[in-house]
C-alpha cells in the first residue's frame, strides 16, 4: 500500500438522520507504529451506529445532549465498529507474519492495558471505523481467526453484539444449569445472548414478539415469552422457581416488573435502553433478596479473547439477515432501525 492511494468510505460530518451518511473518496490510512492496516471483508451494523449518527447517547448531567458513545464526536467520522478482513500492511514494531492473516478487530478503546480494562471508546465513534475499504487498528486488538470455518459476514457480526452479550454473561456470572431471561431477543445482542447462554448450559427464556418468535426458538431459547402479553405472568409460568440472571437490553418498565422475578441472589444485567432510560423499581425487591443490578458496556479484553476462541471453533453461528454494498449504507441503517429483521445486517466494501 502506498500513501497516495484512495479508498471509498462512508462517513458522517454531523449528527442527524440517514441523510448525513456520505460516500467519499479518502486517503487509505497508513498504519502507525504498533498498528496494522486491514482490508475490510465485511462490516456489521449495530444500534450503536444509529445512536452515534443521531448523537443519542446524552452526557452525564445532560441526558438530552447530542453526543457520541462517550462524548463529542470528532467529525468527519467513518462509522462502523465491527470488522472482519485481512491484514495487508503493518506499522513499525508489528510482526510481519500478520500480513495475509484473516482477522477480527476488537473495536473497543480501553482505559488501560490490563486484561480487565474497561472500554471507554469505540471504533466508528471515537476513531474511524470499518464503513470503508480499509481500516487501521492497534495490533494487540487484532485477533487471528484464519482457521475459523465462519464466513467474513459471520465473523464481522461478532465484536459488538456478541462481545456485549458475552460481557453481560460474564459480569452476571451466569453458570451452567442456571435460568436466564433475555430481553429484546431477536435483536443483534439479544440473539447473541440466546446463543451464548445456551452454549454455556443455561436454561434460556427469551422475550420476543410476533413473527420473530420461531427464529428466537431456533437460536436456542427453551421458551419464548411474547412481549405483547403479560411478561411477568408468562415468566413465572415458564420458570416457577425464578430467574437467576436477567440479560436485559430493553430496560424501561421491564426492570421494575422483572426484579421480583429474580431468585435469591439474582443478577439483573443491563446493557441497553431500547425501552427507555428512565427506570423505576421497588428497592426492597433488591436488598431484601441480595439481588444485584449490574451495568455492562461491551466487553473486556479477556471477554473478547473468550469470544474469539468460540469463533475459531465455530461454537456460535451468527445469523445474517441481509447484506448491502457500502454505497447503500443509508438503506442498511434504515433497515436496521425498522427492527423487522432477525440476525445481523452487514455491508461489503
Explain what you see.
By secondary structure, the chain is an alpha/beta fold. It has 2 domains: 6-161 and 299-348, Medium-chain alcohol dehydrogenases, catalytic domain (Quinone Oxidoreductase, Chain A, domain 1); 173-295, 3-Layer(aba) Sandwich (Rossmann fold), CATH 3.40.50. It is built from 10 helices and 18 strands. Strands 3, 5, 6, 9, 10, 17 and 18 form a 7-stranded mixed β-sheet that branches. The longest helix has 14 residues, at 158-171.
For this structure, the CATH topology of the largest domain is Quinone Oxidoreductase, Chain A, domain 1
Which residues form runs of ≥5 with pLDDT under 50? none
CA-CA gap between termini: 17 Å
Shape: globular
| CATH architecture assignment of the largest domain | Alpha-Beta Complex
- How many individual domains? 2
Please outline the major beta sheet. 7 strands, mixed
Helical coverage, percent range: 10-25%
Proportion of beta-strand residues: 25-35%
Determine and state the CATH class of the largest domain.
Alpha Beta
Mean pLDDT: 95
Q: Whole-number radius of gyration?
A: 20 Å
Would you count the extended β strands for me? 18
Classification by helices and strands: alpha/beta
User: How many helix segments?
Assistant: 10
Topology as a string of helices (H) and strands (E): EEEHEEEEEEEHHEHEHEHEHEHEHEHE
What is the H level of CATH, i.e. the homologous superfamily of the largest domain?
Answer: Medium-chain alcohol dehydrogenases, catalytic domain
Amino acid at each position: 500500500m502506498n500513501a497516495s492511494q484512495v479508498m471509498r468510505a462512508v462517513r458522517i460530518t454531523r449528527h442527524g438522520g440517514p441523510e448525513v451518511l456520505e460516500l467519499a473518496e479518502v486517503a487509505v490510512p497508513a498504519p502507525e507504529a504498533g498498528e496494522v492496516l486491514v482490508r475490510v471483508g465485511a462490516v456489521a451494523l449495530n444500534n450503536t451506529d444509529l445512536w452515534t449518527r443521531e448523537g443519542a447517547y446524552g452526557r452525564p448531567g445532560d441526558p438530552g445532549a447530542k453526543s457520541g458513545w462517550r462524548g463529542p464526536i470528532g467529525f468527519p467520522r467513518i462509522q462502523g465498529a465491527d470488522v472482519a478482513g485481512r491484514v495487508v500492511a503493518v506499522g513499525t514494531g508489528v510482526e510481519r507474519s500478520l500480513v495475509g492473516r484473516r482477522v477480527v478487530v476488537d473495536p473497543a478503546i480501553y482505559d488501560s492495558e490490563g486484561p480487565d480494562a474497561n472500554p471507554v471508546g469505540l471504533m466508528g465513534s471515537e476513531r474511524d471505523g470499518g464503513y470503508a475499504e480499509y481500516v487501521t487498528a492497534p495490533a494487540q486488538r487484532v485477533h487471528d481467526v484464519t482457521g475459523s470455518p465462519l464466513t467474513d459476514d459471520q465473523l464481522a457480526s461478532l465484536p459488538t453484539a456478541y462481545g456485549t452479550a458475552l460481557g453481560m454473561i460474564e459480569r452476571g456470572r451466569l453458570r451452567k444449569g442456571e435460568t436466564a431471561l433475555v430481553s429484546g431477543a431477536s435483536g443483534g445482542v439479544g440473539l447473541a445472548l440466546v446463543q451464548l447462554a445456551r452454549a454455556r448450559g443455561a436454561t434460556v427464556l427469551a422475550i420476543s414478539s410476533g413473527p420473530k418468535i420461531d427464529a428466537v426458538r431456533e437460536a436456542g431459547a427453551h421458551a419464548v415469552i411474547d412481549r405483547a402479553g403479560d411478561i411477568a405472568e408468562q415468566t413465572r409460568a415458564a420458570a416457577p422457581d425464578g430467574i437467576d440472571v436477567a440479560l436485559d437490553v430493553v430496560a424501561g418498565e421491564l426492570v421494575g416488573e422483572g426484579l421480583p422475578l429474580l431468585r435469591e441472589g439474582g443478577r439483573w444485567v443491563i446493557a441497553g435502553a431500547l425501552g427507555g432510560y428512565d427506570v423505576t423499581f421497588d428497592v426492597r425487591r433488591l436488598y431484601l433478596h441480595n439481588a444485584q443490578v449490574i451495568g455492562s458496556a461491551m466487553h473486556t479484553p479477556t471477554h473478547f479473547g473468550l469470544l474469539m476462541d468460540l469463533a475459531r471453533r465455530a461454537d456460535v453461528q451468527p445469523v445474517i439477515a441481509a447484506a448491502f454494498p457500502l454505497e447503500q449504507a443509508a438503506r442498511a441503517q434504515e433497515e436496521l432501525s425498522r427492527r423487522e429483521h432477525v440476525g445481523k445486517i452487514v455491508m461489503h466494501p
